[in-house]
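[Q] Does anyone have a clean structure-token version of this?
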Amino acid sequence: MPKIDLSTLSRSTGSSYPASHDAAMVGRSSLRIGDAAGLTQFGVNLVRLEPGALSSLRHWHEQQDEFLMVTDGALTLIEDNGETLLQRGDCAAFPAGVANGHHLINRSAAPASFLVIGTRTSQEVAWYSDLDMKVTVQDRVMTYTRRDGSAMDREDAP
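[A] Here you go.
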């Protein structure tokens, strides 16, 4: 297996969220390691969160598993059952189809990072626990709608 030189990868910022929700991702960046390595069956990203930053909006997936491991610093996992402090080496997993909205927030004064690995499927639906929003993915194209499938307001549209 060839070594992946992380220093050669471009750091991604922002999100695919509709404009009114994209601002919540300020302070989040990631290295798309799986894409750089040509992986197609699962995604691998090394995500960095600056103090106060969120990993994502709280969500859960119908078909895709997620696994994460904190690689540096401390992060707070927020899910339906409450909050859990995760420190370097701590792991969490989110099986597909379990309606447990989750995300991480960096409540510390220093940057923190985590490795996230997730299934890739050609079709997917993910639900946002704190918003009237869902995303439907078809061949990596994301479409955001309200939970009932209706169009979002103009200011919420991607």
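[Q] Thanks! Anything notable?
[A] The chain is about 5% helix and 45% strand.
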